[in-house]
Amino acid sequence: MAKAQAPDTSSISRLDQIKISQYFGCNTFSERTMRERLQKDVYKAYRQALKRGEALSPEVARSVALAMKEWALEQGCTHFTHWFLPMTGATAEKHDAFITWDEPGTVIERFSGSQLIQGEPDASSFPSGGLRATFEARGYTAWDPASPAFLMEGPLGKTLCIPTAFVGYHGEALDHKVPLLRSMGVLSERAKDALKHFGVNAEAVVAQCGPEQEYFAVDLDLAQQRPDLMFANRTLQGAKPPKGQELEDHYFGSIKERVLGFMQEVELECFKLGIPAKTRHNEVAPNQFEIAPIYEAANLASDHNQLLMEILKSVGERHSLAILLHEKPFAGVNGSGKHVNWSLATDEGQNLLEPGQTPEENLQFLYFLSATLKAIHTHGGLLRAAIASAGNDHRLGANEAPPAIMSAFLGAQLNHILDAIEKGDAADASTQRILDLGIGNLPRIEKDATDRNRTSPFAFTGNKFEFRAVGSSQPIALPLTVINAAVAEALEGLNAKLDAEIKSGKEHKAAVMAVVRQAIIETKAIRFEGNGYSDEWKQEAERRGLPHAKDTVAALHIWEGAAAKAVFSKAGILSEGELESRLHIRHEQYQKAIAIETQVLRQMAETQILPSITADLGARANSLAKLAAAGVTVPEPLKAALQAQATLAGEAQVRLAAMKEALLAAEAMEDNHARTEAFGNQVNESKHALREVLDRLEEACDADLWPLPKYWQLLSPLL
């Protein structure tokens, strides 16, 4: 059988060297490569198992492993690893060489089917939230056949990376991937049941995702001079620069050569790994940028986004750039998000959230739209909890990102249609290009009749929903799992109601419209078209009974609610134990993030900033004393300025002591919830109070004595 003739990727160093389509995915064991290397019956069995969500047979696994090993060795691989996503937020890997003993003193390259399917890394130090004791070291990685293996290029060789799920000895999910895959399976089943009512017999329905990734890039040499950027990924102190984003001249501006070279190398790496990077541009804040991909299956999008974050950082270092993925690296300028665009599609590629060409397709569209609205209405608080973190707390509700209140924006045209369905009116919705529902005089759906609303956390944008509240550093697997679970639950409820309506004797279209109308009425509270930044909306949302978790402390309480537990446990997405473990981990991660920031700020204040201020005070006092000794009258304003600076330095010492006391008090608390509240309130407040004084001291200090790169240096254009 002829083997795939992959291009020599080692010689590709420019985007325009050959067509992207000729080398896209060349560093992955893609389906095209498998189709060319596997026997037809083996490839067919693999595809069927993948579509049905079934385990591969040992025979198929052995054949795939052999083909994968041969391909990897041909590409220059010396090692392989099971690449997985533990609940640290980062990726994990343990590399093994392709060797085993052949005879004494001689090795051969070997890679078995069992090694492909299952690995056994030490799991003792990964977060488990109490699912396992720390002395229980065993964990298992299981191959995810839906995510292609890929090559990691190192300085002296390549490693075959096999995307896997990570579970404990008793099968407990210890990662973000397992719940995501489970939620996709449940959603597929519920969606297939719904489609049968519209004459569509799909083999599978796939949750689709296209995450937009925002990030900052700053000069690496400057970043390495700031302990806060090195250890907390954000600046914990920094006076406002004379120019930030006020002129809005960075947004969509010309991309500077240094940054463009970095972006192009990132895209080159992405294309080799089959990551469909589509868009690059400058974002709003100085030195803030965005990269966005084409849509793909949610689990693959999740893997690719994790890879992308790693690529951004590693390529950035090669270009002497520090890539900051924190949600708020700099105070006073916009933070970074990760807009998770979500939709549903059949295995044949039909987008279920796009109006169709026939009345029946538009009924189907309204049905799935209603299910999504019901999911947001029922579990808006859980969606908020899914994206809660210490970093995202700095961004949400700050008039630069969606508010912490979950609402849905549909646009005037679609809103008008839903209102008309609710009232039973026959008003026409538009005189522009429209799609007819074919039911009496009901209004007709226009494909795209409205502008986008950037203040909406969950906005409908033509054929998808854009979940804009996800933080830039966060893995997207968790919010995707919540969306999938909530929509699956909503579809299950709508399907049951539709069955009952039809059983009662209603004609199909009338039955569908009855169920849709009821959903529209029940979910009206979360539809909002106005300014989500306004105080009026906060008051209106409260009147509507919408949850408003202003920070992680409040959001984690929602995670513990009965509704949250039910949506996961009854569908088999997360057991109560797995759900509880994630709650413990999120409390711990939140506490540790703030504790690290506090300790870094303490060290910066004690060993860098305040000694510099003291030196500046001494130098100024000495200068004034010399003037007086020379018979020069020292103006009172100079004396007053020196006294004001000294008073401010004294206040900094007082606030520093208060911050240290708050940290000690929080760490001494045994109750997990009380500790989280102490970190989120007292520790954070004391940290912010100290920063306020330090920022003022920076503005008064001799520039030659200030020990840290300033905002104006970090945010200067990267020419």
From TrEMBL:
Gene3D superfamilies: 1.20.120.1560, Glutamine synthetase/guanido kinase, catalytic domain. Residues 187-609 form the GS catalytic domain. It comes from Geothrix limicola. PROSITE patterns: GLNA_ATP, GS_BETA_GRASP, GS_CATALYTIC. It comes from the Bacteria. Belongs to the glutamine synthetase family. Residues 78-171 form the GS beta-grasp domain. This is Glutamine synthetase. It holds the Pfam family GSIII_N.
